[in-house]
Amino acid sequence: MAMAVHDESSATVSVAQVLIDSVGLSKVFSYSIPDRFLARIGIGSYVSVPLGSSRARGWVVGLSELSVRDAEGLEFKLSPISRLLGGGPNADVIALCKWAGWRFIGSPVNFLTHASPKKRIASRPGGLLEFQDCDRSFRQIRGESQVVRIPPSHSRADWIIGHIGSPSSVAGQVIVVCATQSAVKHLAARFARAGYTVAVFPDEFEQALDGAQVVIGARNAVFASVSNLSEVIVVDADDPSHTETSSPSWSSYVVARGRVGQGQVALLLSSVPSVDMSHGARTKSLSRSEERSGWPKVLVGEITEVSGLNFLISSGLISQIRSVLVSAVTPAKLTDEGLVDYDGVIVLYNRLGGARTLICSKCEKVVSCVKCSSTLMQMVPRHLREGVGHSGDMNRTAREHLSIVGLACPRCKEEYPAICTNCMSTSLKVVTFGIERFRTLLQAAVGKRVSEVDASTEIRSESLGPITIGTEAVFSRFRSARGVVIADFDHYLFAPALGASETALALLARASRLVPPRTVASGFVPLYIQTRDVQNPVIKAALEGDPRQVTNGEAELRQRLSLPPFGAIVRVFGPKAPLWIRRSEIGLAQDVEVLPSGDGAFNLRGSSIEQLLDLIAEKRLAQPSAGVRFSADSS
After folding, report:
1. What confidence tens digit (pLDDT) does each residue in 270-321 have?
2. Contact, 528 vs 488, CB < 8 A?
3. Could you count the other beta carbons within 10 Å of the beta carbon of residue 25?
4. What whole-number distance in Å separates Cα of residue 385 and Cα of residue 578?
5. Residue 326 burial (CB < 10 Å; 0-12/13-18/19+)?
6. Spatial separation of the C-alpha atoms in residues 407 and 464, rounded to whole Å
7. List of domains in the chain
8. Are 507 and 492 contacting, i.e. CB atoms less than 8 angstroms apart?
9. Which DSSP symbol is given to 87?
10. pTM
């Protein structure tokens, strides 16, 4: 009887490349796949693997076969995968996450966390991915970008349903990205009632993969795994909730535009689309009369330095509140989405943030840049600007009372002596206020109970008085109000940031969504704005319901100063930023300018964001960037 001969050259070992779920490590290692996992493992599977003397978890980002001979010839021994924990993002989304790691100067792990299901799901076999170069396709010509300028009071659900058509005619899957969870609940219910199959991300992760017509979620939904993407719609793209502010900072609308490929569309719905949103996109809008009617009536009050306990509580503000509350206030109600339908007046007074407006004591004008009209800020002491010291070296109270020895423009970097650029007076002062003191004085002035709301407040409808003062948290806690008062609009209008005017107008759009549009007869003006600059284009845009008055001028200014999107800026900060800037020698690179921006932070400026990001990636490989943060989010 002949003996069977086993041919080792034809035997193979199944191998998985696993990206370790650790931002600090963020490396790919190879592991053998035990036979018991072969029928279930695939690209995106989440696994447990041995790593050194411990265990780690990670995503499968590659599958291959090696002959037994080649496997034995490796410099290292292939350890087997320990456990198959479940399924995860598909190959397209893994590639998107790798691109996002480059685009926002982070790790793919940062974004795979956003893209993964929050509860264990079944692993799906198969899939193809070349992880090493999978992000390159996202840097080539992408799909179409559109911006739709839609007024604050116009129904987003009605517009989207009219846009994508009836459930029977929908071709492909539509991802809808919302700013808040309450918006997700509201729109998901509307789409379900209209007859679409709906999957809410990340809770219904598998339904999205199985072909739900509408996949909807908050910011992270832009990374939802689907099988047949046709369109990504970002609702209220101007809302700051679409931007992740932790490291790395990223915006869902930027990811949406990067995600869509040929034949797919990224559509941004916004009442006040920014210059960056509109750049390279086709813009649509309603008719001029429809757009204007979708904004509320606006009344503007001028802030003047009159005597009194707090000049923000002006006679105009008191008169406005009393006119809105001339009739009885009905009790507040909670909606199914957990929002408050409020029949009183909301007074927006944001106590958070570091903007400190400089006012001339003589002419009472905001001290602004002659070149670009941005508000000027106190110049940071030289030893802090050059990164020699650290802000913690100085007592905070002492820092806030530093004599104003010089001024600097945060936008165009022009420097000025400590004088008013309007009347040349040297008498300048910083305007700051506290919310608790403001609430007490407002209650005494109006003679009605004033309740207070912030992000941590547990709202009970019976606890709300006819007036509620709050931070920007009111926009995510309230669905409606009889009237809104913005007590100190200059806090936003003159913020020391790129695009401050666009941000200020976006704030007005959010406030406008709470109150009735101008087509509703109310007997009073529902939106009241207090400012020192009543002729500002942002104010005019709100009065006329025409955001182009801001964005057109902002686009011209940015193009003239080579600011994003017509140039590139990446902010480098963190405790070791000065050391990294010096050791990486990035300032020696061609077409790159390093500008200190205070407190040991720097702005890297270049002509192309792609070239600047490639340069930073190269420098980070050569010079580790632990203790350094980067912000390449142009929004």
Report:
1. 999 999 999 999 999 999 999 999 999 999 999 876 544 467 888 999 999 9
2. no
3. 14
4. 10
5. exposed
6. 43
7. 10-136 (no CATH), 141-286 (3.40.50.300), 292-353+433-559 (3.40.50), 357-431 (no CATH), 567-631 (3.30.70)
8. yes
9. -
10. 0.85
